Amino acid sequence: MKKNNKTAASPAAPLTEKDRLILEEAVATRKTAHDFAQKEQYTDALERIIAALKGLRDFSDYERREFKELMVVLLFDLAEVHFNLKDYKQSEKELETLFKVLDGLLKLDAERFGHLHILAMELSTRILRSRRKVMDMLVKQKINAEQLYEKVNQGVVAATDKLVESLRKVGQLLAAAGDYREALKFYAEAVKFSKKRTGKMSRKEVKLSIEMAEVMMRVRQLRPRARRLLAALLKHAIALETVELEEEILTLTEMVENQIENEPRWKQFFLLVAGKGGKKKDAEKK
Asked: What is the DSSP letter of 221?
């Protein structure tokens, strides 16, 4: 990786007060993320990890060992959370960046960072196995959905709810496999049939639509659309007096707004961390 300043800071040189505070805040934010993850509140955990990474962008020297150490931990956390959210494609992308950052640290201290490399390899294996399992389940679920379509078309009323759930599962599996746009088609079908069944926008349709917005957020071009959908869903959630859905929508809205606002900076930041982006101050001019 290229130096961020004309004279790189020595690993033994004391941190500036600003850099020390940045690291401390990131560590504290990471702890909050860990607490959320322990409770399986992965969306909240994801939000905090992103907040910690966002804070690290203002660190003065991306060559500092302290910076790289925390980056490695946060990148692993990010990949792990996306794995638990069943976004295996995104998790794999983050592992690629993680391995690149780890490579330099292993050369410095293989004993200290070797366990993180092993954990990353284990996560990579889990992702591979999970994706294979997803593909097997996807074939079966699509067949099930086709059979339920036939029953619904034949006028079997009880089949509608089962079809909605089947379509939802196909959407979830496609999203897990990284086929986001195809997943959205199945979610849209699920919402359509569910609304036709209930005749209104109930809690079930709002929840389905929130999941749909989460998938949209994984595609850069669809994030403005996800933001508009979430804004519309918030009104329904308020009308239904579903506080937990309101909170979920507000969390996702904040996340998608940060994604849209920071997209160019995120890309450049990860390139810099991985050693491909040139100098930090050149990136800040963009």
From this structure: G
Q: Please give the full DSSP string across 155-200, using - where no structure is assigned.
A: T-TTHHHHHHHHHHHHHHHHHHTT-HHHHHHHHHHHHHHHHHHHSS
What stretches of 199-242 show up as alpha helix (H) in DSSP? 203-216, 223-240
Sole residue written with tokens 């994706």: 131
Rounded-to-integer distance, Cα 236 and Cα 225, Å: 17
**Measured on CA atoms in the order 104, 109, 110, 115, is the torsion positive or negative?**
negative
Instruction: Please indicate whether residue 216 or residue 265 has the higher confidence score (pLDDT).
Output: 216
CA distance 42 to 169: 19
pTM for this model (two decimals): 0.80
Distance CA 207, CA 21 (A): 39
Cβ neighbours around 109 below 10 Å, total: 11
Give CA angle at 150 (145, 154), nearest 5°: 145
